[in-house]
Design brief:
- This protein is α+β, with helices and mostly antiparallel strands and 113 residues long.
- It has helices at 5-11, 55-70, 72-75; strands at residues 18-21, 25-29, 37-43, 81-84, 100-104.
- Strands 1-2-3-5-4 form a five-stranded antiparallel sheet, covered by helices on one side.
- The structure holds guanosine-5'-monophosphate (5GP) and zinc ion (ZN).
- Residues 1, 4, 6-7, 46, 97 line the site of zinc ion.
């Protein structure tokens, strides 16, 4: 998608420090970290909502989740971590390209507000 920030990171039109990538997705640091470690996992395919996913997209998301869990050293996951997917306005989604927040490196509170 031409006018999408995360598609531009995926294509390389805009540079970001990519920590991991494969045929399915990229991982880079969030510019405004909400935890000691805060990464974004971004599928290379553009879609905004989980509700738009095909069965193949569901399999893609499964592969991404499995891969994230294997990147323990790179993402600092050893003492635990939190994955967040914001969907829509109430959740505060600001980038309309589905992404998984990966938060780690500290004890976390549970406060959806
Ligand atoms: P959302 O609010 O849509 O769930 O998450 C979007 C995330 O993208 C936010 O945490 C925000 O800090 C991050 N973000 C927005 N613009 C940029 C950018 O230019 N570079 C990076 N690395 N992260 C960004
Ligand atoms: Zn996109």
């Amino acid at each position: 998608m031409d006018d999408c920030l995360f598609c531009k990171f995926v294509s390389g039109v805009l540079k970001t420090d990519i920590i991991y990538q494969d045929e399915d997705f990229i991982i880079f640091k969030d510019i405004n970290p909400q935890a000691k470690n805060h990464f974004l996992a971004v599928p290379k395919k553009h879609f905004k909502y989980l509700a738009e996913m095909s069965d193949d997209d569901g399999a893609l998301l499964g592969r991404i989740l499995k891969k994230i869990s294997s990147l323990s050293d790179e993402l600092g996951l050893k003492n635990g971590y939190r994955l967040v997917i914001n969907q829509g306005d109430d959740a505060g989604q600001t980038v309309p390209h589905l992404h998984i927040h990966i938060l780690s490196g500290q004890k976390m509170q549970w406060n959806p507000a």
